[in-house]
Amino acid sequence: MSAxxxxxxxxPGSTQPRPSEExxxxxxxxxxxxxxxxxxxxxxxxxxxRALSSALRREGSTRWQAVRSGIAKxxxxxxxxxxxxxxxxxPDSGMPSTQSRPRRRKAPGSRAIRRGWRLFIGALLCLGLGxxxxxxxxxxxxxxxxxxxxxxxAAEPTLLIRxxxxxxxxxxxxxxxxxxxxxxxxxxxxxxxxAIEDQRFREHDGVDWRGISRxxxxxxxxxxxxxxxxxxxxxxxxxxxLGPERTLSRKLQEAVLATTLERQLAKERILExxxxxxxxxxxxxxxxxxxxxxxxKEIGELSLPEAALLAASIQSPSRVNPISDLGGAxxxxxxxxxxxxxxxxxxxxxxxxxxxxxxxxxxEPQPSRAGSxxxxxxxxxxxxxxxxxxxxxxxxxxxxxxxxAEAERIVREVMADQGAAVGASQAALVAMTPNGRVRAMVGxxxxxxxxxxxxxxxxxxxxxxxKLFVYMAALILGASPDSTISDAxxxxxxxxxxxFGGQSHGTVxxxxxxxxxxxxxxxxxxxxxxxxxxVSVARxxxxxxxxxxxxxxxxxxxxxxxxxxxxxxxxxALGRTPVNATGIEALRFGExxxLGxxxxxxxEQTRLTRTRDPMLGMLRAxxxxxxxxxxxxxxxxxxxxxxxSQDSRDAWFIGFGGGMVIGVWVGNDDNSPMDEVTGGGLPxxxxxxxxxxxxxxxxxxxxxxxxxxxxxxxxxxxCSAAYQSFRAEDCTYQPYEGPRRICTR
Length: 745
Hints:
Elements lengths: L44 H24 L9 H12 L20 H33 L16 E4 L5 E5 L2 E2 L10 H11 L11 H14 L9 H11 L5 H17 L2 H9 L8 E2 L1 H9 L8 H9 L13 H17 L5 H12 L12 H15 L6 E5 L3 H19 L6 E7 L5 E5 L24 H10 L7 E3 L20 E3 H6 L3 H11 L1 H10 L21 H13 L1 E2 L6 E6 L6 E2 L8 E2 L4 H14 L13 E6 L5 E8 L2 E8 L14 H16 L4 E2 L12 H7 L9 E2 L6 E3 L3
Parallel strand pairs: 1-5, 3-4, 17-19
Antiparallel strand pairs: 1-2, 5-11, 6-7, 6-16, 8-9, 10-13, 11-12, 14-15, 15-16, 18-19
Helix pairs in contact: 1-2, 3-7, 4-10, 4-11, 6-7, 6-8, 10-11, 10-12, 11-12, 14-21, 15-17, 15-18
Family: In the C-terminal section; belongs to the transpeptidase family. Belongs to the BA14k family.
GO molecular function: carbohydrate binding; penicillin binding; peptidoglycan glycosyltransferase activity; serine-type D-Ala-D-Ala carboxypeptidase activity
Pathway: Cell wall biogenesis; peptidoglycan biosynthesis
């Protein structure tokens, strides 16, 4: 078919050829040979246009796919080449052959621009994911926070032991003094804490973003942490709720709770809670507790330098405080004072004066506080009771602070005056009521140098004080004080005990043998009574230490503690066995009322009947005419016994009278012998002076007697026989508890 001279009509689906691919105007428009034909008839012009349009579409699709696959620069695929050849340059197409289209040259910076856009878009995606993740994490961590009730939780259980007059004796665990209102705290303490911990406390809303930025800059400049960014409110949140853990979620919680706290509580309330809660080292939680711990003062009595030292301890309380590192604490306190002056909280003159005082300021020496040895001992007793309560245990101690102070003073004086001359370096004392209430305890000469309690923990040979059980066993078996025994020399399996001084006394009464502490007579009596019976009596009186059933047991060669032996003599004074010593008078859990007085004995007691009076008579004879005359107290019927171990390694005196039982031991920690020290020497003197102090410091008033007719107030003979503490001049006696009473017999 011949070509028409008119331009062909354009099919709507056809594609306009690119200018570079158009044939010249003189050439006829080539038409592709139809791919298929419904009939052998020659194809129409419309069919040819459709075929051309389809081929061009296929070629364009192939090029787009190549670009997407990053192979746009490659040569066309075989399929594309075939289509192109079939549609444009085939020998039967009627179109002339043309050269390939030249490639477009890309701008030199296009690759860098595309890479930059990719990085920018990636950064935006990461930022969006980070913000989304942070919001999700914040939501997850906020779900369980106590936002509805921002109040301090209950304090951790604490064991607190106080004396009867309320003075703190000792604590276990955290010590928190009674809660103190902000207006009862000195203003310079408040300003010192704000200056060094949170100078914008009164301005921010819980989180100080400016302070965080400043701290970050200073820490980066210093190459380490020199300043923190937490506000007082944030610190309080950590104290009350979150603890010291440092994680992103914790910091988010801290920030949210801090702002919540600021909305719910006034600044003054937040500061008050903080100052009553912050840890300041040495077991002291809160400024009131720290003031008492470091200076023995009420918080309102703190001076500016003392307040600066407390504020200085907040940063590193366990490492830098007035006790653990006074020098470090003073250096930081000087910084506190300088910062206060820089911020206008004090003037320069006040700062200089405080710095001068700070240089010589030291914490008050912790008193070998009347009762330190006692405090350690009673703490062990109270620990077993602590688990019974979850609100903390407060125990009222049996200690008499005045008697304790006097006992410590007397022991130190006697040992300082006479101890060195006779080779004695240590002493111990226990004073208790007959029912076991411990009123004083001295475990050694200096608690600061040695915390070993020689009154409760040292096992020493009791010497002749152990003879109480030998003679009680004889009385139980039917002997009497007037029964006789030979004091002649005796030998048992090669062992030959000797009397002090080396003399023998022939046949003597049990009373004389006990009064003058004859060893030979006592060993012979023990052989007649039986060592097993002696051990049985000692157990009945509460002695739990190991007792070796040997002949020498009668002379006190098995080691016991001073506390155990004093309990045994308390049983004699009480008339019932055994007596268990206690240092706790009453208990209280949390804020509950007192649970009552603790039981003194957890074992069934046995009343001493016919054997007690004869034994009391022999014990009194020891003081009135025997080895214990040095223990005589004017106006008081004292009963007791001396004891001296072999080579004077231990010297004892234990006695009672006037409602008080006192045991004294003197010796050396290394068990070295003393120079002829006996129980009737230094121990008896200490006993006498402490017993006199107990009488002088005891209740001065006399309980009123029942109304009665004029005349004699009492039957002196009957009262004297009934009460060993009886005083004829005023017809009074001293019961185990309370003031003296008038005898009505």
